[in-house]
Input
Amino acid sequence: MRFSNTLLLLILCFLVIIWTVRSVPPEPPVRCDQTGCTVSNAYGVWPDRKNCNAANVTYPTTEDELIKAVAYASEHNLKVKTVTKFSSTIPKLACPSGSEAMLISTSKYNSVIEIEPDRLTVTADSGVSWRELIDKVEGAGFSIVPSPYWEGVSIGGLISTGSHGSSWSGRGGSVHDHVVGINLVVPATSSEGYAKVVSIEQGRDDELLNAVKVSLGVLGVISKVKLSIEKAFKRSITYNFTSDVALEDIFMEHGKKFEFGDITWYPSRKTAVYRYDLRSPEDVSGNGVNDFIGFQSNPILISKGVRALEKALETSKSENGKCKTADTTLAYKKLTGNGLKNNGLFFTGYPVIGSQGKLQSSGSCLYSSSFRVDVSCSWDPRYNGLSFFETTAIFTVSRFRDFLLDVKKLRDLKPERLCGIDIYNGILIRFIKGSKAYLGQTEDSVVIDFNYYRADDALTPRLNQDVMEEMEQMAFVKYGAKAHWGKNRKVGFFGVRQKFGPNFDKFLEVKNKLDPKMMFSSEWSDEILFGRESFKHDGCALEGNCVCSDDKHCSPSEGYFCRQGLVYAQARVCRFSSAQV
Output
């Protein structure tokens, strides 16, 4: 099967969206009927592909209503999970145990944002969206420093899973490290009305704060979050598309030099994109906007077409087709500044200068317009668009160089095998500072993210999936990287408790104190929190629910067998062998 002009036409149609187009908003994550409720994530499918059910959902709008909801569940011994408006988390952290469980949605608890200029803080209801919070703070002449790249999150959900941008400067790039106070609603005794608010302040309740600011939703329901802010500032961004030679020797200095810098590595293309991102003097003009290409609205028909094309490349095992796609995608990103716009509409050249609020996060595909119902986020499950896995690993700085060298060795065996990563966003490299949060990072760290194709069916193997699996096991096993709590396949969390050491036990102490009846725990959140490996079954390694130890954990009928890694020999991966089909 040949992919030349047709491939390039489809990809260019997918990418060429010059104007900012607002689109069909994502579907609410909770849907109910007379039999009960179902909760999903933004991608429409959980890692195990099983539905997540609950008896009912409640939508508090105030802290008093939130207290009443928790009190009702506590009095009636119900299991509870908190659900946000966006439900962007990949693992099943929002899935409760049992069909009688209750959901508490914070989607309507979003009316209060209070700025204290003299104290340089802002306090928001937990359901306030990240974009709403940014705009309110910027409108008052201040800026929030941390810069998570995706703005489709609420402030409560954002900190619960350790979301972050990129920075080793100041308090660092993780939003939770800028939290100075939290109100948490927890179960209580009957004499206390079955629920109460625990008000936690930095400097007064540090042990509680260190547990609650990255809590995975298992300690209670976050009601209010207080963040530190600064006087408004501008940023200046330039992307340098260049060779990946000496990347392993450059990354550390890059992270130190640029306050918000990152690196995007396209290993199959032997290209590194260095983001030079610093504060800009206030007297320098600029009205730049960050409208990252991956988060822009896309015509629904084009999203479907690109998905169909990718499926065809998978079926035909066309490495050449995937590499052409990677070349086209990378060229377009270079041409358009990866979505940066100097004047809010067009990219005209570097540097792109603008306010912190316009450059720190993006997500234009989230917002609706009555005039455009033919566009959406490219992964919207209603339209059968993109479907992908995301691996996010957090390394100590001292071990990251060797990981990069191992990936280069794997790449050099046959670069075409990594084109499946590069057609998405390559390997994004970011920097986060050491944290006091018990479930955060104890020292300065480097984070990688990479996305790759996910099949429509759990038992369908993927082209060159062994390469992604070997990289995954290199990261989490050989180099002891920690998994991002809101991303990753199940295998990323195996052995996670040992990686956090004494801090994990400190977190459990607080958990047992605040929720002794484990009202906010479920088998799904326990599976992630404790990194438990469940019973292996046929095909379990195909979607990262196990590491294969037998051919049947792969897909021998399709020619995929359990084999050792090519560079990391201790890895066990599902590799295609045409000779054995």
About this structure: The radius of gyration is 23 Å. The first strand starts at residue 30 and ends at 33. Confidence is low (pLDDT under 50) at residues 1-6, 12-21. The CA atoms of residues 138 and 339 lie 22 Å apart.
